[in-house]
């Protein structure tokens, strides 16, 4: 499994948890400035990775595929794209039934060559056992993505579904980009230390599992279900938001991790419990803030709410800023369009990005179960804007396929908003809104692109495209847009 050291510790934690310290290496000298995540061709514009983990490839059902659509001066341009499957030349492995390639994606300039690289998780990949899982790195270049290597899974005997969640960033504050991989099993989080290069031996890694007191022990069966990373402390390294389930239930549990801390009592801070999260600086104070989404009802999860909810936690030099009140948002919150209704799924999709270029991150919230007109679960996306005082509801707006200018028509089970991304795809320093609707056209799925302007999201010039546009087969409901990264 390689010649570099790896460490493993099982973590017994109380109210403040701890994770095994990473085995540090000295920072490498970097020749060029690292590209921003998802800028695969180094042109200063974000590209978008679209996962279709249920796609059929060469007759293999649910083998999975990822389409990468490149940004341009006019935003996403679907005619310029790269299709990646495990049958693509240069990609390790081969497409097999149930691999679910594209279940998760993440991006960073791992080798610091000026081009962002793409990480793709395939948790259904069979290795030594069924559903061992794998993660593939596809390398960026001036001409886009090509060539790949597999991320090592040093703890394959202690985990399954390696790659079910992914995040990348400088997690240990040594100047190099690391990768965090979520899995199931008794060792349910793996770190691979940077720098990660196209060839040669990789640096050391570490792994851990979680226990958070008798009533909040983390479930090995669910493992780490979602990861996000960002500079919450404002000190130039990335903290990690970790999502899982409480053992013996499917209730959510969420924590903020500081990978610099090497003891066993201080490395985790409790966050509002939820399924997904997004990180960005809402108030412009230099500390990234955290939005946690829980789309479930309280009958299914005690941390949920009728119709779902989003909780915003503000960052500070020590991680969570405990002096500031959390902002809890539902569709019954004053200023938020709509009304909280059972099954809306508000908070199932989240992204933070600066839409209007004012220096404050704005928040896009997907509600994939929202009824639009008479169409149940057609889906919707709500956008709220940041300010120096934090996120506010003034000027909030909701978009559906029945909104003027948005292509298509809201239909039952489209699940528009199941995934959302805010990223600058045109290079104008304003984030554009990308929306995934994996239920569109009876499970074929589709993606929509709406431009960001100085006054917010505009539907003028909005575009949409489905799997055939980027080479994904519609056989067997691929659920194109079930995963989005940008």
TrEMBL record:
In its UniProt record, a GO molecular function of this protein is: glycosylphosphatidylinositol phospholipase D activity
A single Gene Ontology CC annotation of this entry is: extracellular space
Q: Does the keyword Repressor apply?
A: no
State whether keyword Glycoprotein applies.
yes
Record keywords: Glycoprotein, Hydrolase, Repeat, Signal
Q: Where is the signal peptide?
A: 1-30
List, alphabetically, the SMART domains matched: Int_alpha
What is an example of a Pfam family matching this protein? FG-GAP
InterPro entries linked: FG-GAP, Int_alpha_beta-p, Integrin_alpha_N
Q: What protein does this entry describe? A: Integrin-like protein
Origin species, per record, is Streptomyces luteolifulvus
């Amino acid at each position: 499994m390689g010649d570099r050291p790896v460490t493993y510790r099982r973590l017994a934690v109380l109210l403040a948890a701890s994770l095994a310290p990473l085995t540090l290496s000295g920072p490498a000298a970097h020749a060029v400035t690292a590209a921003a995540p998802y800028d695969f061709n180094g042109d200063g514009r974000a590209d978008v990775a679209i996962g279709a983990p249920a796609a059929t490839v060469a007759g293999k059902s649910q083998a999975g595929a990822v389409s990468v659509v490149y940004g341009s001066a006019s935003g996403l341009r679907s005619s310029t794209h790269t299709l990646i499957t495990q049958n693509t030349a240069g990609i390790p492995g081969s497409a097999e039934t149930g691999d679910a390639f594209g279940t998760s994606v993440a991006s960073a300039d791992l080798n610091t060559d000026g081009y962002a690289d793409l990480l793709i998780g395939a948790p259904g990949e069979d290795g030594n056992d069924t559903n061992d899982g794998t993660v593939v790195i596809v390398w960026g270049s001036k001409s886009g993505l090509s060539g790949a290597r597999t991320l090592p899974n040093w703890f394959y005997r202690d985990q399954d579904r390696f790659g079910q969640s992914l995040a990348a960033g400088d997690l240990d504050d040594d100047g190099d980009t690391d990768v965090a991989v979520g899995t199931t099993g008794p060792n349910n989080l793996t770190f691979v230390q940077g720098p990660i290069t196209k060839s040669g031996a990789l640096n050391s890694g570490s792994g851990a599992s979680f226990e958070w007191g008798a009533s909040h022990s983390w479930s090995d069966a669910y493992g780490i279900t979602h990861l996000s990373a960002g500079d919450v402390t404002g000190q130039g390294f990335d903290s990690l938001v970790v999502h899982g389930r409480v053992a013996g239930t499917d209730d959510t549990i969420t924590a903020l991790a500081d990978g610099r801390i090497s003891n066993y009592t201080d490395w985790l801070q409790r966050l509002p419990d939820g399924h997904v999260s997004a990180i960005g600086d809402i108030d412009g104070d230099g500390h990234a803030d955290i939005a946690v989404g829980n789309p479930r009802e309280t009958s299914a999860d005690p941390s949920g709410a009728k119709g779902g909810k989003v909780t915003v936690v503000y960052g500070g030099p020590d991680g969570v800023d405990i002096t500031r009140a959390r902002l809890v948002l539902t569709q019954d919150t004053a200023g938020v369009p709509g009304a909280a209704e059972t099954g809306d799924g508000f908070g199932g999709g989240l992204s933070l990005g600066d839409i209007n270029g004012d220096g404050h991150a704005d928040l896009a919230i997907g509600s994939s179960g929202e009824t639009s007109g008479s169409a149940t679960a057609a889906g919707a996306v709500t956008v709220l804007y940041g300010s120096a005082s934090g996120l506010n509801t003034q000027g909030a707006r909701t978009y559906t396929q029945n909104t003027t200018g948005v292509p298509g028509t809201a239909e039952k089970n489209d699940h528009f908003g199941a995934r959302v991304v805010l990223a600058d795809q045109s290079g104008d320093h304003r984030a554009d809104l990308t929306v995934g609707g994996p239920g569109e056209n009876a499970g074929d799925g589709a993606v929509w692109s709406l431009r960001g302007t100085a006054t917010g999201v505009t539907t003028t010039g909005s575009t949409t495209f489905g799997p055939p546009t980027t080479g994904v087969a519609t056989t067997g409901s691929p659920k194109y847009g079930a995963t989005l990264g940008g």
